[in-house]
Amino acid sequence: MSRPRKAEDPIRWPVPCNRCGQHHQTVARWPDGGVCGYCYQQAKRTRGICACGHEGVLPGLINEQPACRQCSGVRLNVDCRTCGAEDELHSGGRCWSCVLGSVVDDLFTDPATGSIANDLVPLAAALKSMKRANSGLTWIRQKHVTAFLRNLAVAPEITHESLDELPDSRTREYVRGLLTEHGVLPQRDELRTRYDTWAAQALERMRDPQNVDVIRRYIRWHHQRRMNHMDEVTRGTFLRAKQEVTVAIDFLSWLAGHGIQLTELQQSHLDVWQAEGPTTRRIAERFLKWAIKTKAAPSGLTIVPHRRGTSRRLAKPGQDEALKQVIHDDGIEARDRGAAILILVFGQTAENIARLTWNDVTITEELVTIQLGTIQIALPDPLDNPWRELAANPRHDLTASHPNTAWVFRGASPGRHIHPGHLTTRLSKLFSTRAARLGTLHELTKLAPVAIIAETLGYSPTTIERHATDSAAAYAQYVAAAKAVRQNP
Q1: What is the mean pLDDT, run by run of 10 residues, along the chain of 489 residues?
Q2: C-alpha–C-alpha distance, residues 388 and 335, integer Å
Q3: Does the model's pTM come out above 0.85?
């Protein structure tokens, strides 16, 4: 990201820049007039095809259009002495890309062999070919990154396990992502791995041997077994599993503190424990059901369950106002507008939105369709505009993080989609994503049968049934709405 401009100073610099019109120091005088430092930098980075057919840096202006040096008469050195290409120069007459290549080769070369390890060649090539070389240099030249890459260059082997043995850090995980994205390391379900690590640490917090064995079995045969049957552990599954085990540990610790064994548990014990603590203790219901099923606890015991349907919903007027803002406010980024539309119109979760790929989206001149459930849903104008913008400018395509990714909403981590929590935080400036989603589902169940909504939007029928019951949905209302749409296309 470029640095923001300083405030202009008409007193110190009375003659304005000929290009931007602001009062900053003039650093060059070109045929079209004096140019300030900001416009000078921008000119060096302007690339394209001149009217004469020359392709490269276009620092000049002719009739308000970028032009090459020869046509415009602008005198500017942008010829790299190493590769010969026209580009902004970094130092020593070399362009940013050549300097980056030199730095990468130096970092990744093992002093003992004088060459780069075969495992690191793909990563080195990806870094050197970054479209935005200045971003690569800025990242690499951070002291902790430089140290990490130098150590990586002399490592006897590069595996997930060898990286796991290093101190946990953002740099370690970012480099792991790069190594995975460029084929050095195999794909790994990071949330499943994180859960295994967390679970092992959670077990260390328990002291009673019998309870440790119960929680170990609960983790292994309830949560980890479920995760092992998933193609990829979702963020929701990961967070729920942590919460359920945390509450179960709290419950067993309370029993141990009162000298009560799980096999001797009585309803009165449950009632006291639940009454003494926060409502999150209701989550222990899931552990209790498992304990009873596996005969670790007596049968017939119950916990007051967590009540559904108590979350706030965004009312219809609020939804309409939010959608109007999303559609017409050009100050909102395309990815935020695209995600907001899927929540406000189709009741999608942030997690499902974050996991969308371009295989789920079809864009033609006439129509944009998105597959949310089993059906392709058409987005009419103006709902399609953000998606067309995203296709033209997918973001995060100038570094080595996403060379061939299919994610619609690319994240900052290499090869990964945007974090659902980050997406929710961005949209929170516009509306509560949970309240908006629940409000949308509430309204949709007034218009269509449960089965149709569930199939179309990718929800389970049970989930939609709860909303339908709450909103007193009627099939006749759906038919009436469908007829109105056909009569007024």
Answers
A1: 79 95 95 94 93 95 93 94 92 93 95 93 92 90 95 93 91 93 91 93 85 93 93 88 94 92 92 88 91 93 69 84 88 91 88 90 89 83 89 80 86 88 90 87 73 68 62 41 48
A2: 10
A3: no
